[in-house]
Every structure is written in structure tokens, then in C-alpha cells.
Design a protein that fits this description.
The chain is of the alpha+beta class and about 130 residues long. The chain is about 30% helix and about 25% strand. Strands 1, 2, 3, 4, 5 and 6 form a six-stranded mixed β-sheet that branches. The protein is globular, with a radius of gyration of 14 Å.
């Protein structure tokens, strides 16, 4: 799967970590935004997303805690929002990209459950709230 990150502080520190996983600066930068204990889980989740051909295969090969799910409460005219968990607490939110060059996202009204077609995602937020606390 192709993963595109929005240029914002949370996404850029996450992207920098997954692209430079052995770099101490990347780990330090990531741990300022998130929890240091999240580094290994973030790298594993990213690796699994990259290696999966599409979201359906990702969901079939991962545990139920990390599956790609729909986020509730999306308006029919807005892009459909998906989420996956990094560990059990932190969530990564993204859009399903239909057209990569123009960054055209799947609208909620157009979704029919086609997880097999999700081959490119646009990560726009990584939640820093730990839901386990």
C-alpha cells in the first residue's frame, strides 16, 4: 500500500520515524510528540501497511486491535475517514485515495465496502490521546 502523510507536526514526526527507524534523532523527535513506548508498534504497523497490497489483505493478516475501520459520523458529502490503531490506544486517521496525483478521496456516499480497492492512503492525523488511561 502507498502511504502519503499530510505535512503537519504529528504526521511529519511519525513519517520521519518510519523512514529513519534507526536514527536516534527520529526516535527522540517521535517521543516528544508521542510516547516512547509507541516506537516499536508504530514501526510494525507502518511496515504491515506498506507490505499489504490493499486494506482487505491488511485486515486479514493483522489482529483485530489493528484492523482498518471506518470512523463514524462522516457526512455523505465529506471524504470517508478510516482509522487504525497503533497499539491499543493511539489511532491513526486517514482517507482512502482514489486518484493519487490530484489527492482525490473517496466520499462517504460512494463507499460500498470496497476494502480491496484501498491501495493508497493519506494520513492526515495521528491521535495523541491514550484511550487506555
Amino acid at each position: 500500500m502507498e502511504i502519503i502523510f499530510k505535512p503537519c507536526s504529528t504526521c511529519s514526526s511519525y513519517e520521519y520515524l518510519v523512514n529513519n527507524e534507526n536514527d536516534r534523532i527520529a526516535i527522540k523527535r517521535f517521543s516528544k510528540e508521542f510516547n516512547l513506548s509507541l516506537v516499536k508498534a508504530a514501526l510494525n504497523t507502518h511496515s504491515k501497511l506498506l507490505s499489504a497490497q490493499n486494506a482487505l489483505i491488511f485486515n486479514q493478516t493483522t489482529t483485530s486491535d489493528n484492523r482498518i475501520e471506518l470512523k463514524g459520523g462522516c457526512s455523505k458529502k465529506d471524504p470517508l475517514i478510516f482509522k487504525t490503531r497503533v497499539q491499543k490506544a493511539y489511532r491513526k486517521f486517514f482517507y482512502y485515495v482514489i486518484e493519487t496525483e490530484m489527492k482525490e478521496f473517496c466520499l462517504t456516499k460512494d463507499w460500498t465496502g470496497q476494502f480491496k480497492e484501498i491501495k493508497s492512503i493519506y494520513v492526515f492525523d495521528i491521535n495523541k490521546h491514550n484511550y487506555n488511561n
